[in-house]
Amino acid sequence: MSDIKKFMFVNRKAPYGTIYALESLEVVLITAAFDQDVSLAFLDDGVYQLKKGQQTKGIETKNFSPTYRALEGYDVEKLYVEQESLEARGLTEADLLVDVTVLGSKEMGALMEQQDVVLSF
Amino acid sequence: MSDIKKFMFVNRKAPYGTIYALESLEVVLITAAFDQDVSLAFLDDGVYQLKKGQQTKGIETKNFSPTYRALEGYDVEKLYVEQESLEARGLTEADLLVDVTVLGSKEMGALMEQQDVVLSF
Amino acid sequence: MKFGIVVNEGPYQHQASDSAYLFCKAAIERGHEVWRVFFYHDGVNNATRLTEPPQDDRHIVNRWGKLAEEHKIDLVVCVAAALRRGIRDENLAQGFRISGLGQLVEAGIQTDRLVVFGD
Amino acid sequence: MKFGIVVNEGPYQHQASDSAYLFCKAAIERGHEVWRVFFYHDGVNNATRLTEPPQDDRHIVNRWGKLAEEHKIDLVVCVAAALRRGIRDENLAQGFRISGLGQLVEAGIQTDRLVVFGD
Amino acid sequence: MLHIINKSPLCHNALESCLRTVGSGDILLIEDAVYAATKGNAMEDRMRAAAGQIKVYVLLPDLEARGLADRIIDGIASVDYGGFVDLVAANKNCQSWL
Amino acid sequence: MLHIINKSPLCHNALESCLRTVGSGDILLIEDAVYAATKGNAMEDRMRAAAGQIKVYVLLPDLEARGLADRIIDGIASVDYGGFVDLVAANKNCQSWL
Description:
The complex is a heterohexamer, with two copies of chain A (121 residues), two copies of chain C (119 residues) and two copies of chain E (98 residues). Chain A is of the alpha/beta class and 121 residues long.
């Protein structure tokens, strides 16, 4: 498996309501371990995954949001967030746990086109 | 269990995409067997459950829509459909498998208020 | 007051089972009775004794069983939904029993409030 | 062409597993290869041998096993998701195997197209 | 009557359907529906209007988990699980808009 | 690129997000998304506009199951599962808007 493919993980769901956000991180880390080209896209409620200040004690569930900060250590550095999704939720880059690249909808669509494998969460 | 309660089954989901429409019918029949006061409400994509002409051969799944016609035989006769949901889907009463009472949104809300038990599907 | 609870989704995938559990705990703390929890649709997957979550995660199946034992809650798994999804007596967790949809209707009749948790 | 398939939802509750199965059948009829089906999240519930649907309904678990046997499809169940949901070797249906998420990434690398079915 | 919503308002129509239908009673936002209680959300104006006519509550532990407990729209009250239980008990019946 | 949508357009925002984002390629409507391909649906105008810019397909077996095979909007093409496979093969990559 010497070939490198472009993997994009499209995150469109809020954290905690469903398990997808957590599982997406798992696959991202493993894909990085396979030395693939990894991008993460956050659209719709997926942008909420990156919100600072998550406190899960009251729902007795593990807070996995610190993992986003750890991605850099695994050389996962391409995080893209859709501008329109942020705005519709009253969020700005200052609300987010990590540095991201903010893209307009059509730019995000163009980036998706360039991928080899798109996994949706 | 001699007391009679008003049970309403609120159907808001399309058939086949998920199992809820099928399961709702199961509980309706059993609730009728318990001699309770049974109403069915169809809102949002739930109105599609009553669409005539369902043909499920191509998806290798059982077509359960004839069961709506059989409800009368179990003395389940209170079927309410929200007008706004029908209109948004381009449907009229003529498209439906069974006779129903069409209600406006607020009338539907008022009917929900009167129930003892509301089960959502 | 006497509560009945319905859980429509399996553990971990959706928050439904978590929310239902925390609701039950709070209801008991308030002095109410949780008379029955009915596991329906994918909710039957809350009742498998083979579950083994990661060490640092909550054990959703076991904590239902424990709560039921401590507070005499009747945990009922819908038989038709369970058969479709491979939940049977041989893999049923302690504290749960398998029975028919009539148990859901009965919960609607016998309790003061029936609260549904799902997707 | 070589296809990889991902199934994110369990049988019967959502159409995802049905759609994935019918897609695989059609791909094979078109002369393509289905190299691997990866069962992820609640999708692992497609792999229990204890399933027993009503007589007049499709048997989703068994038909996956049969298709895999006839066309040498690798049916892989995600181990972490399976442990969370009580799927283990002792209740695993014939034709499936349990393995890690690396098998999903490998499917992305080795196949020409990866198609995801879910909710 | 207590209306329980658990779906994100910008991704699902559950809250909209509820607001269209309901004339009185209480609404409780739980799970992913708690986003509807936050300032800056595209639903904010709708929620302010609704909160003027009908009492709207949000489940605080779910909002804290999502990191938004400091942005509750004025007029929406937060409750813990005990408060959730109280709302169910205080209303004659309840409905989950799944 | 092939965009696969499986959610009802009036209950979920998946199709809307896809249309907002996508500039070219193909869209395939399956499962509960097939309702977006039907005349009279509140999405009809949006779909007609989209179908002028991008090729839109609908999975016929799913539309037949839901009793609406006779109402496909002009300009939207129906395919069977074989056609679904062909669309995946013909596009360089695909994405499911779950």
